[in-house]
Amino acid sequence: MEKVKFDIPEAFEPILEKARYKVFYGGRGSGKSWTIAQFLVMQAYKNKKTRILCTREIMNSIKESVHKLIADTIERVGLGKYFKITHNSITCMNGSEFIFMGLLRNVDQIKSTEGIDYCWVSEAHNVSDESWEILLPTIRKEGSEILIDFNPKYQDAPTYQRWVENPPEDAISKLVNYTDNPDFPEVLRIEMEHDKKKDRLLYEQKWLGKPIGIGGKVWPQFDPEHHVKQISMEEIAKKGDVVMAMDPHSHFYPACLWMALMPINERRNYPEDYYLHVYAEWPTLDELSAPYHEQRKKLTYTGDLSDIAREIYARDGYGVKIRARAIDPRFAKGSGGWNWSTSTQGIVGEFAKKANGGLSFTLPFEKDLDVQRPVLQKFMDWNKLAPISTMNMPRFSVDPSCHNLILSLKNHRLEEDPHRTGELKEKESEKYKDFSDCLRIGSALYKGYTSPQPKPKSRSYQGQRSVFG
């Protein structure tokens, strides 16, 4: 075996210590990825049959992995003749191997992956709690290590909370920035100095690893533990004022939601005396084989309006009466196939034709969409310091089958507006936005809602506990 010199910068020397978790977080240009790649190449070269899993939250192809970085590192340290590098695998002559896999859509493969010595979770800032819960127990070989690198963005993000705010006992968690990189490139230094002069907040987040404070979520009140549950279709049909909403897209699948507004007492003042439940969505995650926000501009919808109408009718629900259907009035390109109308009004007219399903859509006032966010936040909110009761509970829920909406409510974020001037201004990110918008489109139909007078309770109903309590 040749003597090869591996240069580990001083700030990264803890990577050589023994620990279950080794976490390096901070701003751009710190050398996190280069150092971890070099460390793992060193382990693969020095130790026979070392298995190294390289993963990240979303990896649609090998190009989105650290494959190239590992391959470049092998060549840079002069070990090319000891490794076999193909377009999707890297193996060493001593039996060591690198495995590349995304977390989000490879649950079964991740769970069945055995004998991993090192696991590298790269760009981990957007890894969800669910992915962490699946991955960590999978890396269970005695003495195995998990290496994590990320650039923090939001203080309340699962990765930042798990590894920086509340790290486990057997963890090295270290902040590293460009100031710790002796080889910080000049091209990045010019970019850094420009950001430092132009936008102090951007500089601190991007280059010093200082996360944006809590509140970066569009729906900060949403908590899957309390807001995801099933309500029977019988209950929805009996008590619900049901509407359906569509956020259309030209050439692509429209986002559709079905929701029911149900009274929780006899006062019936909107919104405080009502419960809002979303019971269905289309298309589903299973139908698209990936989350909607990933596929929204990749999978062209090849059906026509009548096909969409059939999908919509199939999800209305047995025995449920749909009071109204809403479509986004701001949309000006139509929704679905290549040859449809180029205006929302045109789409409404086309859907209304008998040959296209005879669906009747309403266009909510545009100004009403903008005020739905605080209204929906009130539905989601409750006093978390007091026990949940009929007087203190969330008044909003989502059926567990609505995976895309749940992902939107959990992950839809605010981001900096590049066109802002002066103080920090934010806008909603386009990622995860579609079903978030669809929720607002539907809820706008309830603005100024007045329900019919409640029917007298039958004797058999008196004393029964509400399903919403």
Structure notes:
With 469 residues, the chain is an alpha/beta fold. It has 2 domains: 10-208, 3-Layer(aba) Sandwich (Rossmann fold); 224-446, 2-Layer Sandwich (Nucleotidyltransferase, domain 5). Helices cover 31% and strands 17% of the residues. The chain has 17 helices and 15 strands. The termini are far apart.
SSE layout:
Elements: E1 21-25, H1 32-46, E2 51-56, H2 67-76, E3 83-85, E4 90-92, E5 97-102, H3 107-112, E6 118-121, H4 129-138, E7 145-150, H5 158-165, E8 171-175, H6 186-198, H7 200-208, H8 224-227, H9 233-239, E9 241-247, E10 255-263, E11 274-282, H10 285-288, H11 292-295, H12 305-315, E12 322-327, H13 344-352, H14 366-370, H15 372-380, E13 396-398, H16 403-411, E14 414-416, E15 426-428, H17 433-443
Parallel strand pairs: 1-7, 1-8, 2-5, 2-6, 6-7, 9-12, 11-13
Antiparallel strand pairs: 3-4, 4-5, 9-10, 10-11, 14-15
Helix pairs in contact: 1-2, 6-7, 16-17
Sum up the structure in keywords.
469 residues; alpha/beta; Rossmann fold; Nucleotidyltransferase, domain 5; eight-stranded mixed β-sheet; five-stranded mixed β-sheet; 17 helices; 15 strands; 31% helix; disordered C terminus
Short description:
By secondary structure, the protein is of the alpha/beta class. It contains 17 helices and 15 strands.
Give the % helix: 25-40%
Mean pLDDT: 86
Give the name of the CATH architecture of the largest domain: 2-Layer Sandwich
CATH topology of the largest domain: Nucleotidyltransferase, domain 5
